[in-house]
């Protein structure tokens, strides 16, 4: 049904259909759909409880949907853990960032997938290749234009909020991932740091990395998104673009005041 | 399109945010944050200087070697306690598990007039059985904590009683005397060589070997890193793809193994196997870990710090005794040290760049 608008021959890199997830009596997702096309920034907006976070947590492996199908690159996937999602190329920057404050930047970047030394040192003595991890971490940060963060062995808790966010984004972008999901990346940040994170998202798109961005911040969403997925009552209410609709329209869709006919939506890719 | 998304803050100079805080106090705080074992090291050196001034016999090689022997039981068990506290847990059953393993291996190997068990197994086999039992006991703690999702404090408070009772049920309250034990059971208590008049005990060497091993593991392996991550923020660790349940279970199991080795060392150090060998050992291990700079909130601390912490406790006790103080002031001094160590930890944790 929703595939009718996909006239252009571009396949979604991430696709979800009829996803259902309940928490006891609370319905998180009620047959929700999602499409992410290559190279785009898809913003997911919606009121509190609309199922934004639940939806993306299905794709990051933190939730297992009870019904529905998910596909990555056209192949069906069933994520049981964040590791499964990562293996399929989906990296998530969670709202809580999921960084370990007491550990240093390099260790955090490689947490859960540490590199081991080659040869017997790594094989029999299980020795990590700290030098290699630090080199790669520094490289990754400078690729993202955060090279001023010089001391890679600094504990994350000594960093500012924006810098921690940068570490979390760098970790997501570091491992040849196909898709990056960002959950409320600027919610806890000041103006200057938010700008920095937006710049990071922009840079990711310039590199052709598709991004799903969950945000409450309408001006931000309209500034950076290619398409805007509006979530309402556990399902996809509409997909619009910053060109076709205004922020006020989007709020109206979020609250259910306005319904958008399918032909006015942007269900297919914009570029 | 870049014009639409590039807000005009341009090149944010993040480097300014990395400047170290000025002032000598903030500098000390930052250094201690990075090298937490420096504070116990300073305390140990200062204490040794003060006690040497109070009584020069303190620094004699014979007294120094005596102190290493006095530290060996607490020191070995504190390795297990450090691993557990790093995961933000605590183990109150450490002494009970060690004694259970100790009585198991001693009764298995005992020859002679034992009225409880008189298996007379070869020492090596008896030791393996004792260590295996202690490992199982640790795994049991880990199972309860991971599967039943109970707080470690409650679980180990319960198993403290369980293992104490099992020891009494199986082995009565009877002490196995040294004469009933084969030589190899008491191997850890031998002093194979001297450096000057400093007697090196096998058990102390074993303890130092374990410290080196687990220091390496914590610093250089993925498992070690995951222990810190789980203690620091379990939710973040889980989202980072770490199987936190598996890490916790393995930590309690490995700790049980260390308690089993400590049981063998204890028999060597004491020369016999008694169920009442170390009544205060649980709290003593926690004291050593805390004085050694490991945070009770998990996620930060070092093995070398714990070794220093165990030595500090022995040095203070021994030094005050040589200076003519009796038991009460010695206990008081250790208590004050613990409070000072935890206050220092709280202060260090507040460091921000």
Task: Describe the 3D structure.
The complex is a heterodimer of chains A (271) and B (353). By secondary structure, chain A is α/β, with parallel strands linked by helices. Chain A has a domain at 2-89 and 178-264: Rossmann fold (3-Layer(aba) Sandwich). Chain A has helices spanning 52-60, 82-87, 105-109, 120-123, 130-143, 161-173, 191-206, 218-224, 247-255, and strands at 14-23, 26-36, 41-46, 67-72, 75-77, 90-93, 179-183, 211-214, 227-232, 235-240. In chain A, the strands form 2 sheets. Chain A has a 6-stranded mixed β-sheet, sandwiched between helices. Chain A has a 4-stranded antiparallel β-sheet with strand order 2-1-4-5, with helices on one face. In chain A, strand 7 (179-183), helix 7 (191-206) and strand 8 form a beta-alpha-beta unit. In chain A, helix 6 packs parallel to helix 7 (191-206). The longest helix of chain A is centred in the C-terminal third of the chain and has 16 residues, at 191-206. The two termini of chain A are 21 Å apart. The model of chain A is unreliable at 1-7 (pLDDT under 50). By secondary structure, chain B is mostly helical. Chain B has one domain (38-51, 60-347): ABC transporter involved in vitamin B12 uptake, BtuC. Chain B is built from 15 helices and 2 strands. Chain B has helices at residues 2-5, 24-34, 38-54, 61-70, 72-86, 94-109, 123-147, 152-171, 202-220, 222-232, 234-239, 244-270, 281-291, 303-322, 327-349; strands at residues 193-195, 198-200. Chain B has a two-stranded antiparallel ribbon. In chain B, a hairpin with a 2-residue loop joins strand 1 (193-195) and strand 2 (198-200). Chain B is globular. Residues 1-20 of chain B have low confidence and may be disordered. The A-B interface holds A 62, 81-83, 86, 92, 94, 96-103, 107, 111-114, 116, 125-128, 130, 146, 148-151, 154-155, 157-160, 162-163, 192, 195-196, 198-199, 201-202, 206, 223-224 and B 2, 4-7, 9, 12-15, 17-18, 33-34, 216, 220-223, 225-226, 228-229, 232-233, 235-242, 299-300, 351-353.
């Amino acid at each position: 049904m929703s595939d009718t608008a996909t006239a252009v021959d571009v396949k979604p890199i991430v696709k979800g259909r009829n996803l259902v997830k309940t928490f006891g009596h609370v319905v998180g997702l009620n047959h929700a759909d999602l499409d992410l096309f290559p190279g785009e920034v898809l913003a997911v907006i919606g009121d509190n409880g609309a199922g934004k976070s639940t939806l993306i947590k299905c794709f990051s492996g933190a939730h297992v949907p009870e019904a529905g199908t998910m596909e990555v690159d056209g192949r069906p996937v069933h994520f049981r853990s964040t590791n499964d999602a990562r293996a399929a190329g989906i990296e998530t920057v969670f709202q809580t960032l999921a960084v370990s404050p007491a550990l240093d930047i390099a260790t955090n970047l490689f947490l859960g997938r540490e590199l081991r030394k080659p040869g017997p040192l790594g094989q029999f003595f299980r020795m990590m290749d700290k030098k290699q991890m630090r080199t790669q971490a520094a490289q990754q940060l400078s690729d993202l234009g955060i090279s001023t963060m010089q001391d890679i062995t600094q504990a994350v808790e000594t960093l500012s909020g924006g810098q921690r966010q940068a570490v979390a984004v760098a970790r997501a972008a570091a491992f040849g991932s196909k898709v990056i999901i960002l959950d409320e990346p600027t919610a806890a940040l000041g103006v200057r740091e938010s700008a920095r994170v937006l710049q990071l998202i922009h840079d990711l798109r310039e590199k052709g990395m598709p991004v799903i961005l969950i945000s409450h911040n309408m001006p931000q969403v309209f500034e950076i998104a290619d398409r805007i997925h509006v979530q309402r009552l556990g399902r996809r209410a509409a997909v619009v673009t910053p060109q076709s609709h205004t922020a006020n329209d989007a709020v109206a869709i979020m609250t259910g005041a306005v319904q958008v006919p399918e032909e006015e939506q942007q269900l297919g890719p914009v570029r | 399109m870049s014009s639409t998304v590039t807000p005009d803050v341009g090149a944010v100079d993040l480097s300014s945010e990395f400047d170290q805080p000025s002032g000598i106090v903030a500098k000390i705080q930052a250094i201690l944050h990075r090298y937490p074992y420096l504070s116990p090291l300073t305390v140990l050196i200062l204490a040794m200087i003060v006690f040497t001034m109070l009584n020069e016999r303190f620094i004699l090689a014979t007294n120094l070697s005596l102190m290493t022997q006095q530290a060996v039981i607490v020191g070995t068990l504190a390795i297990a306690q450090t691993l557990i506290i790093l995961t933000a847990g605590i183990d109150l059953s450490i002494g009970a598990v060690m004694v259970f393993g100790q009585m198991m291996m001693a009764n298995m190997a005992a020859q002679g007039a034992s009225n409880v068990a008189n298996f007379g197994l070869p020492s090596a086999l008896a030791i393996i059985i004792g260590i295996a039992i202690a490992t199982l006991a640790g795994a049991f703690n880990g199972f309860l904590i991971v599967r039943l999702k109970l707080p470690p404090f409650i679980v180990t408070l319960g198993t403290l009683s369980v293992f104490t009772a099992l020891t009494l049920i199986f082995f009565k309250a009877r002490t196995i005397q040294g004469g009933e034990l084969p030589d190899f059971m008491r191997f850890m208590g031998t002093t194979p060589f001297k450096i000057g008049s400093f007697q090196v005990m096998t058990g102390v060497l074993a303890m130092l070997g374990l410290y080196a091993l687990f220091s390496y593991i914590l610093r250089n392996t993925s498992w070690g890193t995951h222990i810190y991550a789980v203690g620091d923020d379990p939710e973040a660790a889980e989202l980072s793809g770490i199987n936190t349940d598996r890490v916790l279970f393995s930590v309690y199991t490995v700790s049980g193994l260390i308690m089993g080795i400590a049981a063998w060392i204890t028999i060597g150090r004491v020369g016999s196997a008694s169920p009442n060998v170390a009544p205060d050992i649980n709290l003593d291990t926690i004291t050593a870990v805390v004085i050694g700079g490991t945070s009770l909130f998990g996620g930060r601390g070092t093995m070398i710090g714990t070794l220093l912490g165990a030595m500090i406790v022995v040095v203070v006790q021994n030094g005050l005794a040589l200076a003519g103080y009796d038991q009460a002031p010695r206990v008081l001094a250790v208590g004050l040290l613990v409070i000072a160590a935890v206050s220092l930890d709280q202060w260090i944790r507040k460091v921000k760049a």
